[in-house]
Specification:
With 420 residues, this protein is an alpha/beta fold. The chain is built from 5 helices and 24 strands. Helix 1 packs antiparallel against helix 2. 40% of the residues are buried.
């Protein structure tokens, strides 16, 4: 009986041992499989990350290439030329992130560009799709983003040579060449002001306005020749608070004056001014002064944002008729001193809502602005000896839909994808 009991205990112990060993074996096998699976997952993830980073780099390279090709002088002239730029901006598969052909064992990518069929205002929206492949060829990732172009002047180019939110005191030898059709066919406009703050216009000193054909002489101005019959308005010491026949080309305190000049120009409310500033910054054209600016400064991108005083030297010329500039003076001073200083384009004295300072101007030495002066502030700072010459063709160049320097790259919000 005792022997039989001992045998049973021995069998039970053996059985339990076998079960435990079986469980341990199964656990070891399971752990091994999990380990192998983890290794495969880690390997797959590493290969995907490599392919993904390659695809992202390729996408950025293609977008930058498109922007560069778009800005080559004369490359963009309309729809047909844009199709050529898009074709040349696509990148063939098997390309390294430095733009060269990938060798065996190196990660590579390719970028396809297709039209979405939609537009951002009047510019087509394109889908850039980048496919990245890992070094061993087993990892693949796809990223895409929609790209377009937006015009810098999202509002409009001014059609008046002097646009001021405030009063204007024209003194000294101040000359303005009017837009001959600013208020309708054959109705010239030289100065346009709003009602808040009050936009009274004082015509003092030797100030004068005229049509372009009478802006002449060795030192071109409206007061040459000596007879005044050609003038539209001339300084007589009076102040106009409303339209008067004495100053037929001056429109002061206009109730239809835009309440936000920043939005009027850029199509962006004043509170969002940094979105426009960032355009200039992206292109390396947010600078502290105007020292390095010249006649070619509007060639590839027209917007310049000046964060400190802009002191122009004698005979310094900024912009040209074919490549005008948009010069934003951010709560600083524009000093156009010395004979021969010229700005071709749009000069905007911007009163930044985030600063307590205000922009100002100091015009002396007979400088000239060909285009338009737009100012958030008025006052006696408008005094001086200088000329502002309305140039319709120049201002049309600033708003032309066929001029690449008028555009900034636009990423369509919410369009980035890392899946097909």
């Amino acid at each position: 009986m005792i022997t039989s009991l001992n045998k049973n205990k021995g069998m039970a112990t053996l059985f339990v041992t076998i079960i435990i060993l079986s469980l341990m074996t199964m656990m070891v096998i399971f752990a091994t499989k999990v380990g192998i699976f983890d290794q495969r997952m880690a390997g797959n993830e590493a290969r995907y990350k490599e392919a993904f980073s390659t695809a992202e780099a390729g996408l950025e390279l293609a977008v930058q290439g498109f922007d560069n090709k778009f800005r080559v002088a004369g490359a963009f002239t309309g729809t047909a030329s844009l199709a050529t730029i898009i074709t040349n901006s696509a990148i063939a598969g098997g390309t390294e992130t430095d733009g060269t052909t990938a060798e065996a064992g190196e990660p590579s990518f390719g970028v396809a560009i297709t039209s979405t069929g939609s537009s951002l205002v009047n510019f087509p929206v394109y889908q850039f799709t980048s496919t990245g492949i890992g070094a061993d060829g087993t990892g693949t990732a796809v990223v895409s983003r929609q790209i377009s172009m937006k015009q810098i002047l999202g509002g409009q180019a001014p059609d008046v040579p002097v646009v001021v939110s405030g009063s204007v005191g024209t003194g000294g030898n101040f000359n303005i060449v009017a837009n001959p059709n600013g208020a309708g066919d054959g109705v010239p406009i030289s100065i346009w002001t709003g009602t808040s703050p009050a936009g009274d216009v004082s015509m003092a000193g030797a100030s004068a306005t005229c049509q372009l054909e009478f802006y002449d002489g060795n030192n071109a101005q409206c007061s040459n020749p000596s007879g005044n019959s050609e003038l539209l308005s001339q300084g007589d010491g009076s102040t106009a608070a409303a339209y008067t026949t004495n100053f037929p080309d001056v429109l002061p305190n206009d109730p239809n004056f835009p309440p936000d000049l920043f939005q009027y120009l850029f199509g962006v409310v004043r509170a969002d001014w940094e979105t426009v500033k960032s355009m200039a910054n992206t292109h390396g054209q947010m600078v502290s002064n105007c020292t390095g600016l010249d006649a070619s400064s509007g060639t590839s991108f027209s917007l310049w944002w000046i964060t400190d005083d802009c002191n122009m030297g004698s005979n310094q010329v900024i912009g040209s008729a074919d490549n005008p500039v948009i010069l934003v003076i951010d709560d600083s001073e524009i000093d156009m001193g010395g004979g021969g200083a010229e700005i071709h384009g749009l000069l905007f004295l911007f009163n930044n809502p985030d600063n307590v300072a205000t922009p100002s101007s100091d015009f002396h030495g007979s400088p000239s602005i060909f285009g338009s002066l737009v100012s958030d502030v008025g006052g006696a700072a408008m005094n001086g000896s200088y000329s502002i010459v309305y140039d319709g063709d120049l201002l049309e160049n600033l708003s032309s839909g066929n001029n690449s320097s008028n555009y900034d790259l636009a990423y369509i919000p919410g369009s980035w994808r890392d899946f097909q």
